[in-house]
Design goal:
four-stranded antiparallel β-sheet; 571 residues; Rossmann fold; single chain; ABC transporter transmembrane region fold; six-stranded mixed β-sheet; alpha/beta; 14 strands
């Protein structure tokens, strides 16, 4: 589908096609609305040509009642049309937003917020008067035909005026579209930068970077605002010109009507009717010109959204696989970065239930990236991850996620209560299920050694956390994140630097919890720098520059690491 010179992404085209009934109904209502807009013109003709010459008060009463009914019907139809457009906007949101959000989260993209802002910009424009005016524009010929019915020269004047107003609209588009696209892109980049600076506000303040970051953000905003102001100034000039032109034409129609009436070609009532008629014929075009700024912004948003929406995958219906035992296989895993640089090369191993696998290596060796691949958050360039023999891509991610406990380097807590974060925002189906969630939350908290800490908070497990989990210290947040990983006794437990912010008591609870998970038959994978948490590991995998350097029993690998390096050190 192509609109305004833009080829719409398939997903957006399909969503618009799904709203075909809404748009067709809006078009039908627009026809009726524009026919009813002729009522004031007809009313004036009757008043000046029949009521005034004859003094017919009864006629005046009945045509006034008819006018009131026509305008009331017009208003009701206009309201229903607007509701149809709002419903269409709502329907498009229901069709696209879930898949867009899933795509953004699956891609672990920092542009998710901007993509949703762009989508909301496009969706919101659909329910604005500008779109309603677009439905009115095709019926402008109806008013032009009626103008010709009044008199040939009034019709000619209406056609010339409409053509000139369309020329102004085209000039508006030429003058503002490129600037609005540049401005929209610059402001989008500014918002993303501001969001990143706000998230790391403590670091910015602690390093004395506030002034520098403010200057940097203002620089981004200046670039965007300069183009925005330039486009708005150009648009305002053309909007003012179109308004002047329409008002002048409306008055000029009175003058032309007066000349024709003096010549005896039209009646006195047609003088006023011609003015009202021309005003209505040109009003939709003027409305579109006035709303051009928002339309141009939406157009730029569609351009930015195109690539994102084109990459949205079709929803897949997964075969329900049995509850996993937890056998985790990495088969020749390799990953390249966006610059083509290899991040991981030929990583293969098996992690088995009832065993702890430790993954160690220097910073930048690819440990965290490997962890994300193992849980299905990142797809490798080559190779396969299997859970119980099935490729991880053949599992429904949400279903498999219930059996995976993942603790990232950052705590990654969310806005909500402590209980909601630990329970992974699981929604209770009934009171019994709600009790089961509470019991599972308490159990996970006790295993993570965070139960007593949570009870000391102002509202215990119902203590609300702010944006990005604000409200807890780094150590507290990490222990809550550990409880979240343990929630539901997962079959696979993957911990990435789990002791980075823990004190001695927290690390002891961590070691005990991993041993308990191993005892119940879970597959435990621990990524760590500090060896303390790996004391109970059964096997160790050593990564170096993305390559597996050693893999084997923990004691054997530890002995080889402690020994002097030799040429045959690489596994």
């Amino acid at each position: 589908m192509k609109i305004a010179g833009i080829v719409l992404p398939k997903l957006l085209s399909e969503a618009l096609a799904d709203c075909k009934r809404h748009f067709m109904a809006a078009a039908v209502f627009s026809l009726l609305i524009n026919v009813l807009y002729l009522a004031p013109t007809i009313y004036m003709l009757q008043v000046y040509d029949r009521v005034v010459p004859t003094g017919g008060k009864t006629t005046l009463f009945f045509i006034t009642i008819a006018l009131a009914l026509a305008l009331l019907t017009l208003s009701m139809l206009d309201m229903v049309r607007n509701r149809l457009l709002v419903r269409a906007s709502q329907r498009i949101d229901a069709l696209i937003a879930p898949r867009l959000l899933r795509q953004m989260m699956a891609a672990d993209s920092g542009n998710a917020g901007q993509a949703m802002r762009d989508f909301d910009s496009v969706r919101t424009v659909m329910a604005t008067p500008a779109i309603a005016a677009m439905f009115d524009v095709p019926w402008t010929p109806v008013f032009l035909i009626v103008a010709f019915m009044l008199h040939f020269w009034i019709g000619i004047m209406a056609i010339i005026s409409a053509a000139l107003l369309v020329t102004l609209a085209w000039a508006n588009q030429r003058a503002t579209s490129k600037k609005m696209e540049l401005a929209s892109a610059a402001m989008a980049a500014a918002h993303s930068s501001q969001q990143a600076a706000a998230v790391h506000g403590t670091t910015v303040k602690g390093l004395g970077m506030v002034g520098a970051m403010v200057d940097r953000q203002l620089g981004h905003r200046r670039s965007g605002l300069a183009n925005t102001l330039s486009a708005q100034f150009a648009g305002s000039r053309l909007t003012a010109s179109s308004r002047f032109f329409r008002l002048f034409v409306q008055s000029a129609a009175l003058g032309l009507g007066a000349l024709l009436a003096l010549a005896g070609d039209i009646s006195s009532g047609a003088i006023i009717a011609s003015s009202v008629l021309l005003s209505r014929a040109l009003q939709p075009i003027e409305s579109i010109i006035g709303a051009w700024s928002s339309l141009a912004s939406a157009r730029a948003a569609v351009r930015r959204l195109s690539q994102t929406l084109e990459n949205v995958e079709e929803p897949r219906i997964y075969t329900q696989l049995p509850v996993p035992e937890g056998i985790l296989d990495a088969e020749d895993i390799g990953l390249r970065g966006r610059d083509g640089r290899p991040i991981l090369l030929s990583v293969s191993f098996r992690a088995q239930p009832g065993k702890i696998l430790g993954i160690i290596g220097p910073s930048g060796s690819g440990k965290t990236t490997l962890g994300k691949i193992l849980i299905g958050a990142v797809q490798p360039t080559v190779g396969t991850v299997r859970v119980d023999g099935a490729r991880i891509t053949d599992w429904d991610q949400d279903e498999l996620g219930k059996h995976i406990g993942y603790m990232p380097q950052e705590s990654s807590l969310f806005e909500g209560t402590i209980k909601e974060n630990i329970s992974r925002f699981e929604r209770p189906r009934d009171p019994d299920h709600a009790r089961q969630i509470d019991e599972a939350v308490i159990k996970a908290s006790m295993e993570a050694g965070v139960h007593e800490l949570v009870l000391q908070l102002p509202q215990g497990y119902d203590t609300p956390l702010g944006l990005m989990g604000a409200g807890l210290s780094a150590g507290q947040a990490q222990r809550v994140a550990f409880a979240r990983a343990l929630y539901g006794d997962p079959r696979i437990l993957l911990l990435d630097e789990p002791n980075a912010f823990l004190d001695q008591a927290g690390e002891a609870a961590l070691i005990m919890a991993t041993q308990k998970a191993r005892a119940r038959g879970a597959t435990v994978v621990v990524i760590a720098h500090r060896r303390g948490v790996l004391a109970a590991a059964d096997h160790l995998l050593v990564l170096d520059a993305g390559r597996p350097r050693m893999l084997g029993p923990a004691a054997e690998v530890a002995a080889r690491l402690a020994a002097p390096k030799t040429e045959g050190d690489v596994a």
